[in-house]
Amino acid sequence: MELTNAEEELMQIIWKKEKAFINDLVDAYSEPKPAITTIATLLKRMQDKNFVGYVQMGRSREYFAKVTKKSYFSKHMNGLIKSFFNNSTSQFASFFTQETNMSEAELKELRNLIDEKIKEK
């Protein structure tokens, strides 16, 4: 299950904060800040999707991520590779290196990462 853009923006805040009350989440947005009711609606939808949980503390709820950023991003990237690159990571890598205007230093760093992965296998 995927997050909408608004949910993903809120999820980024939750990942960064790790635990937060609704007022903390609203405060983390830049101006104009969304209404508390908007954030509450997003949180409810994200709970229904099992991305967010909470601990009841008196009359307040402290929210936390139930899915790691790495796990979400990994599934998201695998979906993109499957949908747009015929499930070919090499087609994705070719596109990524050609279309992102990587510097020579960044390309060398990427090559080193790939070389390390090859050694591990």
Describe this protein's structure:
- The chain has 121 residues and is of the alpha+beta class.
- It folds into 2 domains: 5-65, Arc Repressor Mutant, subunit A, CATH 1.10.10.10; 69-120, no CATH class.
- It contains 6 helices and 3 strands; from the N terminus they run αβααββααα.
- The mean pLDDT is 92.
Total strand segments = 3
CATH level 3 topology of the largest domain: Arc Repressor Mutant, subunit A
The CATH architecture of the largest domain can be named as Orthogonal Bundle
What number of structural domains do the residues give? 2
* Poorly predicted segments: none
CATH homologous superfamily classification of the largest domain = Winged helix-like DNA-binding domain superfamily/Winged helix DNA-binding domain
Major beta-sheet overview:
3 strands, antiparallel
So what's the CATH class of the largest domain?
Answer: Mainly Alpha
Integer-rounded radius of gyration = 19 Å
Mean pLDDT value: 92
Share of helical residues: 55-70%
Distance between the termini: 31 Å
Looking across the biggest beta sheet, what order are the strands in?
Answer: 1-3-2
* Shape descriptor: elongated
Number of separate helices: 6
% residues in beta strands: 5-15%
By secondary-structure content and strand pairing, the structural class works out as alpha+beta
Order of secondary-structure elements: HEHHEEHHH
Family: Belongs to the BlaI transcriptional regulatory family.
Protein name: BlaI/MecI/CopY family transcriptional regulator
InterPro entries: BlaI_family, WH-like_DNA-bd_sf, WH_DNA-bd_sf
Pfam families: Penicillinase_R
